[in-house]
Amino acid sequence: MERVNKIFNNILYKEYLNKLEAYEEKREFCRHNLEHFLDMSRIAYMMVLEKNLQYSKEVIYAIGLLHDIGRVEQYEKGIGHHIASFNIAKEILKDIDFKEEEKILMDEKLNLLNTNKTYTLYLYYLNNVNNMIELIKDELNDYFYKVTNIL
């Protein structure tokens, strides 16, 4: 996955990833770090395979690696992370040799993924573990349903 490695090695990506990990170091739930990005990539790719969709592994992993990278600008400038992630991804991807149609697809998916609510917004409001687990299950089911319908 040569092109995904180019994202990992991109100076701008590394800068944002390091800042994001620092901002979320003390976050209790769902830190938006490399582990989160890879987990989302793996899950999305498994769903692509299960649904027999025709998207390349590199495209899916690129989307997963970039979908929350804009949280840095949310912390620093108050810009919604979905908007910032989309803009940062465009900047990073212009230096990587994805085909134009792949870039368009990634733009569409990043824009759609980042405008959907995710379960992390609710975690701060939960009082006990049982409620949290049930909420996560429901939200993940909703999220995966949305992901498979937009891919």
In short:
This protein is mainly α and 151 residues long. It has helices spanning 2-9, 11-23, 34-50, 57-66, 71-77, 81-93, 100-113, 120-123, 129-150. The chain contains nine helices and no strands.
Structure characterization notes:
With 151 residues, the chain is an all-alpha fold. Helix content is 72%, strand content 0%. It contains 9 helices and no strands. The protein has helices spanning 2-9, 11-23, 34-50, 57-66, 71-77, 81-93, 100-113, 120-123, 129-150. The radius of gyration is 15 Å and the shape is globular.
Topology, element by element:
Layout (H helix, E strand, L loop, with lengths): L1 H8 L1 H13 L10 H17 L6 H10 L4 H7 L3 H13 L6 H14 L6 H4 L5 H22 L1
Protein traits:
mainly alpha; 0% strand; 151 residues; 72% helix
Q: Give the topology string: H per helix, E per strand.
A: HHHHHHHHH
Major sheet details: none
Mean pLDDT over all positions:
77
The coarse silhouette is globular
Query: Helix amount, in percent?
Result: over 70%
Number of strands: 0
- Roughly how many Å is the radius of gyration? 15 Å
Main structural class: mainly alpha
Supply the number of helical segments. Answer: 9
What ranges have pLDDT less than 50 throughout 5 or more consecutive residues?
Answer: 116-132
Oligomer: single chain
Strand content: under 5%
Distance between the termini: 20 Å
